[in-house]
Design brief:
Blueprint (H helix, E strand, L loop, with lengths): L1 H19 L7 E5 L5 H9 L4 E4 L2 H7 L8 E4 L8 H4 L3 E7 L2 H14 L3 E6 L16 H8 L5 E7 L12 H17 L8 E3 L6 H6 L4 E4 L1 H4 L5
Parallel strand pairs: 1-2, 1-8, 2-3, 3-4, 4-5, 5-6, 6-7
The structure holds pyridoxal-5'-phosphate (PLP).
């Protein structure tokens, strides 16, 4: 049951926050609705869930006109430059900025619609070949490159942790991202804000919250297993 699932997740977030003396209002659930129907999104919406994440542009575009407009859409998957134009006026946050070319395109399209677009930089902390994202040691140079793109608003960092048997094994990955986040924050780079740390999925979001996540991206934990 989707409503029960969401209640359980919220409770687990609360427990993780208690463990490390955080306030649970700092942590927001992104309900990852990929491969799930509009009806299922509506059930989650009825429980008060407002932030939804999709990893594919086409799927987001299809669902967008079919749901209430108080939904805040997040694009969480790899974004191709030629698809930016389709989602630029639909998303509240892009979690997956991973190249300068993409940054330029988002900036250009954002200028055309006359509003800044919030983005997170995707970091491939564990250097997995199968994952997109900058390497940790590239992020600061990258920020220097994009900081003058005035319609692009960098709001933080995102990572997808490796798949492991025990969630505890990914704690160092989350901790490294948090340390980088802090380091960047302390640099006070003009126009770069470190507000959001997007990390943690169904299997590991409690650990991510303990390590400082402000956005957790939970799919199967909310909607049940995906059928492909
Ligand atoms: C699918 C997906 C998620 C959610 O995965 P679950 O394990 O179902 O919670 C989170 N982040 C990204 C980028 C995804 O593609």
């Amino acid at each position: 049951m989707i409503s029960t699932n969401i209640a359980i997740i919220n409770k687990q977030v609360q427990e993780a926050c208690n463990k490390v003396d955080r306030t649970s209002s700092e942590v927001n659930l992104v309900a990852v609705s990929k491969n799930k129907s509009v009806d299922e999104i509506m059930v989650a919406h009825q429980t008060g869930q407002r932030i939804f994440g999709e990893n594919r542009v086409q799927e987001l575009m299809k669902k967008f006109p079919m749901v209430p407009n108080d939904i805040e859409w997040h694009l969480i998957g790899h974004l191709q430059t030629n698809k930016v134009k389709y989602i630029i006026d639909k998303v509240a946050l892009i979690h997956s900025l991973d190249s300068f070319k993409l940054a330029e395109e988002i900036n250009k399209r954002a200028e055309l619609i006359g509003r800044q677009i919030a983005v997170l930089i995707q970091v491939n902390v564990a250097k997995e070949d199968t994952k997109f994202g900058l390497e940790k040691n590239q992020v600061i140079d990258f920020l220097e490159e994009v900081k003058d793109l005035s319609f692009l608003k960098v709001k933080g960092l995102m990572t997808i942790a490796p798949e492991v048997d025990k969630p505890e094994e990914v704690r160092p990955v989350f901790r490294e991202l948090k340390n980088l986040f802090r380091q960047i924050d302390e640099m006070k780079i003009p126009s770069i804000e470190m507000q959001q740390l997007s990390m943690g999925m169904t299997g590991d979001f409690q650990i991510a919250v303990e390590e400082g996540a402000t956005l957790i991206r939970v799919g199967s934990g909310v909607f049940g297993e995906r059928q492909y």
